[in-house]
Amino acid sequence: MSVTDRVTGLVELTRPVNAVAAGFLTFIGAFVAVGADVTAVSGGIESPAIRTLAAGVTTVLATGGGNAINDYFDRDIDRINAPDRPIPRGAVSARGTLAFSVLLFALAAAFALVLPALAIGIAVFNLLALVAYTEWFKGTPGFGNLLVAYLGGSTFLFGGAAVGDAAASATLFLLAALSTVSREVIKDVEDIAGDREEGLRTLPIAVGERRALLLASTALVAAVLASPVPFLRETLGIAYLVAVLPADALMLYAAYEGFSDPTASQTHLKYGMFLAAAAFIVGRVAVLVA
């Protein structure tokens, strides 16, 4: 295996697109909380711009580390479900993957040190929750999905906490968590063969695929029904409401599609979640320029 293959494998372990996307969601959380002040550099290391940047980098590194350690713990399952991933195909070793994830977590911790206490607390809790999930709770019906949903939604909460206003990003956190739990359950349906072979007891294995998909759809419908809350509370204006409608439509379609094609469903759901995040940006910008 060449050096290029090993480097490529290490990059793949981080799921770079997902890691950068998570960092962007942290930025959105900060932007929704403080608006244009997110670019302010006055105050040095305590300025909103520096803290937003530090929070974004922390999220990218921690997400990359989390994805890597997930592959470490899932290496046996991936030989069935995803044989082209770096460890099963031999691009990186299990021990090298573990060391790489520890390095990424250490770098994330270094960047987090410039953030307020609440943001640091969220970062520490998330790290512990991530390790606990990969080691103990991944195969726990429902609870593992809820834990991942929290971790997904907390990127917004972390962004708000980084600039001193976590409460402003709370609605974003809730909507993202509901959408993420739906996507995670649908993914469990997709991976049911390998999970059953490995002896895991995921939600679809415990209650059946159809019931699991019904629960996933219920969570997604709840997220769609809750999406107008920022408009109704007059936090965001009509521009947000218009922008979030395509996201809602795509996510509802993904919920329906999950019963026939879980792979396509979770892809469309991911796109819908990104559209919803973009709607918050549109809504915040519209408020600022009004």
General description of the model:
The chain has 290 residues and is mostly helical. The protein has one domain (3-289): Farnesyl Diphosphate Synthase (Orthogonal Bundle). It contains 15 helices and no strands. It has helices at 3-13, 16-34, 48-73, 75-81, 86-89, 94-112, 117-137, 143-162, 170-190, 192-198, 203-207, 209-226, 229-232, 238-257, 262-289.
Primary descriptors:
290 residues, 0% strand, mainly alpha, globular, Farnesyl Diphosphate Synthase, 15 helices
Whole-angstrom Rg: 19 Å
Overall helicity: over 70%
Looking at the structure, the CATH topology is Farnesyl Diphosphate Synthase
Instruction: Give the N-to-C terminal Cα separation.
Output: 57 Å
Instruction: Tell me the fraction of residues in β-strands, as a range.
Output: under 5%
Order of helices and strands: HHHHHHHHHHHHHHH
Structural class of the secondary elements? mainly alpha
Which architecture per CATH?
Answer: Orthogonal Bundle
- How many strand units? 0
Provide the residue-averaged pLDDT: 88
Q: Mind telling me the CATH class?
A: Mainly Alpha
Q: What form results from the Cα inertia axes?
A: globular
Number of domains: 1
Low-confidence stretches: none
With helices defined by DSSP (H or I, 4 residues minimum), what is the helix count? 15
Largest sheet: none
Gist of the model:
With 290 residues, this protein is mainly α. Helix content is 79%, strand content 0%. The protein starts with a helix and ends with a helix.
